[in-house]
Amino acid sequence: ALEAYQQAASSYPHDHPEKAQMLCNRAACYTMLKMWVILPPKEAAKECSNALAISPGNVKALLWRSKAYEAQGLYKQALSDIQSLNKTTDSTTDTKAAEQRLKDIMS
Questions:
Q1: What is the pTM of this model?
Q2: Contact 27/51 with Cβ under 8 angstroms?
């Protein structure tokens, strides 16, 4: 799946919305599989930042970058992303719980 998403992302122009989606999917794969040895959380966050540069406000990118930041101990950045996501109609009980968890960690 990772290779397929990379190939798909490479097939789109730099600013195409579908490229952003493919970058998000790659980051999600790494995060879900906990493959930090292959792609450290810093790189997963970078993939999501690239996706957000193409598609600002992309909720998947915000979610996965928040998870990648949290894995790096970058709780302030993780909280910022999850709060941005929670301001959208795509917020869920899980994302609201993640926001509270991050607030608790930081207090």
A1: 0.72
A2: yes
